[in-house]
Amino acid sequence: MAQTFNILILPGDGIGPEVMAEAIKLRQELIGGCSIDAHGKSVTEDVKQASLDSDAVLFAAVGGPKWDNVRRGLDGPEGGLLQLRKAMDIYANLRPCSSSSPSASIAKEFSPFRHDVIEDVDFIVVRENCGGAYFGRKVEDADYARHSSRRRSGPPTRSPWPVISLDKANVLASSRLWRRVVEKTMTTEYPQMKLVHQLADSASLIMATNPRALNGVILADNTFGDMISDQAGSIVGTLGVLPSASLNGLPGDKTLKTRPYGLYEPTHGSAPTIAGLNIANPVAMILCVAMMFRYSLNMEEEARRVEDAVRKVLDSGLRTPDLGGKAGTKEMGDAIVAAL
Ligand code: NAI
Ligand code: MG
């Protein structure tokens, strides 16, 4: 029987509407600079409520020079996204990186790494998304911090794998707290999983020299997670094909006090200099749809089908200009739909 889901579509600014159109063939103007223009604020209460009422949110990108004067804090376009993350409490940001991903053929061409170094790379970064320095709150309240770090550990998704927890426990008090809580959570709730503590700076070096050594679930706070996930992006060598998911948990998680929320967004921004030219790469946005099927809608087969279609089209050599090709945004989207 056909199921019906409620998906909130937030295309945003710049190339956002273009890449989103390829992912869903639909447009609305709800968040980001476009919302500042229309409503005087980067995200409205209506949009926050709609996010909480949806099974998932597909988000493209926000921001651009037009709104530089309102760019500070929560008022700017990017602030709208921070407010949404907070409202949905989507504290776990997932960024997969695997040599068997649909964009593997892109990595072969564009990765600055030698092939043998990135062969069989297979990890997922889980970054804490709603706390830490990004939200400007001092970590003073030990109870709050303990609660927050604990939730940061999230449910591991791939049980045979190690969890590699990044911190700077050698110098930072916040990291020592992080480490204690990760340790306690893992031993009491996930005793079957191997836990490795890795200093964040040396993790960076390992990522740059032998990324396979980090295969597993890389767990990190907001700051270290931001840095290591961007660095992981260098393995593929380009922004236009990297999706991400932000979750407060998974469907079926009995500890959740709300419904499961998921927001899916490409790792790239609104690329204002190429907006409106039909040259933006829609692959990252389309792979977000696959992640949405996987994590929010519990539709693994559909997720794989979308990924297979992307893989097939990329393997066929069709490329947008960011990857040295001539295909337009729409042509790329159409080819992927045809492959599907
Ligand atoms: P960006 O990711 O928008 O662009 C970086 C470079 O990659 C540019 O050369 C751009 O042309 C290219 N690029 C990005 N996405 C592409 C795609 N799909 N296809 C082809 N080429 C692509 O980052 P930038 O330039 O630092 O920021 C531009 C605006 O986006 C800023 O206002 C920034 O604040 C905002 N931004 C928003 C994000 C979000 O909504 N989550 C994330 C990052 C930036
Ligand atoms: Mg980043």
Could you list some keywords that capture this structure?
Isopropylmalate Dehydrogenase; 340 residues; alpha/beta; 9-stranded mixed sheet; 2 domains; binds 1,4-dihydronicotinamide adenine dinucleotide; binds magnesium ion
Descriptive report:
The longest helix is centred in the middle third of the chain and has 17 residues. The radius of gyration is 19 Å and the shape is globular. It has two domains: 194 residues, Isopropylmalate Dehydrogenase (3-Layer(aba) Sandwich), CATH 3.40.718.10; 125 residues, Isopropylmalate Dehydrogenase (3-Layer(aba) Sandwich). It has a nine-stranded mixed beta sheet with strand order 1-2-9-8-3-4-7-5-6, sandwiched between helices. α1 packs across α11. It is of the alpha/beta class. The protein contains 13 helices and nine strands. It is 41% helix and 15% strand. Bound molecules: 1,4-dihydronicotinamide adenine dinucleotide and magnesium ion. 1,4-dihydronicotinamide adenine dinucleotide (NAI) binds next to α4. Belongs to the isocitrate and isopropylmalate dehydrogenases family. This is 3-isopropylmalate dehydrogenase. GO terms for molecular function: 3-isopropylmalate dehydrogenase activity; magnesium ion binding; NAD binding. Keywords: Amino-acid biosynthesis, Branched-chain amino acid biosynthesis, Leucine biosynthesis, Magnesium, Manganese, Metal-binding, NAD, Oxidoreductase. Pfam families: Iso_dh.
